[in-house]
Write a structure and sequence with these properties.
This protein is 42% helix and 7% strand. By secondary structure, it is mainly alpha-helical. It contains four helices and two strands. It is globular, with a radius of gyration of 15 Å. The longest helix is centred in the last third of the chain and has 20 residues, at 93-112. The protein has a domain at 10-88. The protein has helices at 10-18, 28-36, 57-66, 93-112, and strands spanning 22-25, 40-43. This is Polysaccharide pyruvyl transferase domain-containing protein. InterPro entries: Polysacch_pyruvyl_Trfase (IPR007345). Residues 13-47 form the Polysaccharide pyruvyl transferase domain.
């Protein structure tokens, strides 16, 4: 696969994730698209203190916890779990739809206030 440009547009980006065998990210939306496309993935931390509620990682950790995928978060680069252990069997369409609905409602509420 060619190196990805930092200026890649959204549709090719989603396509790369959708057709990937594995995906590694530190971005919230990368994790979202991996979950929606059921692509095995790992998330590496952005901050030095990922458990700090003010860190950029707190939103990622909450997302992974919501879908029982906390094992996808790599806290220790020296101890990376087996990516083949990542499964999506427990995630159904109603869960992702509910999460999507809540996210849209959050955005609407934020825009109205």
């Amino acid at each position: 696969m060619p190196a990805l440009s930092k200026n890649i547009s959204i549709f090719p980006f989603i396509g790369y994730i959708k057709h990937a065998k594995y995906f590694v990210t530190s971005a919230f939306h990368g994790a979202v698209f991996a979950i929606l496309n059921k692509v095995k993935f790992f998330v590496f931390p952005v901050s030095d203190n990922p458990n700090d509620p003010k860190s950029m990682d707190s939103r990622l950790i909450a997302l992974l916890d919501t879908f029982s995928l906390s094992s996808c978060y790599v806290y220790d680069k020296e101890n990376i779990p087996n990516i083949d252990d990542v499964t999506f069997d427990h995630i159904n369409e109603s869960e992702t739809s509910a999460y999507r609905h809540n996210s849209i409602q959050f955005l609407k509420d934020a825009l109205e206030s």
